[in-house]
Amino acid sequence: MLAHLSETDKAWLAGFIDGEGYIGIVKGKKKAGPWNSDSLIYHPWVIVTSTDTKVLEDIQLVVSTQKRASLSRTAGQKAAYQVKITKFDDIVLLLEAVLPYLRLKQKQAKLLIEFCKYRDSVKIVTGRGSRGETSFGDVEENIYLQLRELNKRGS
Hints:
- The chain is an alpha+beta fold.
- The protein has helices at residues 7-20, 53-63, 88-98, 106-121, 138-150; strands at 21-30, 39-50, 67-68, 81-85.
- It contains five helices and four strands, in the order H-E-E-H-E-E-H-H-H.
- It has a four-stranded antiparallel β-sheet.
- Helix 3 packs antiparallel against helix 4 and helix 4 (106-121) runs antiparallel to helix 5 (138-150).
- Residues 69-74 and 129-133 have low confidence and may be disordered.
């Protein structure tokens, strides 16, 4: 995905992630169904937002992912669009490539890499609603809370 990137491209991309990006985890709740019980779900995301679709198309080409239009506007504002990276492997490759160039979000990047690698190492247990080792635990919650604190806005 990122093997072709020059160091200049990595620095350019890191600048956009630092300035217009989000590195974090969104916590949700999966509702109970006939074969599973209520459970927490943690979604890792790297998002870059811009009103300039050309910039997002360039980023999309660099990271080889789909651009997901996410209109977010209020009266008098331009529409904002996003490139959202959600696959564990893609997140790790991207963040490891830009990590040396990040200035504002380096801690978030390290934590999200740790989260993705940890989740990839967990044995998946399936069948009859058994959440077993796929359940989220203290490791994921701890990383989520650290990222939430780092991503707080304001004082």
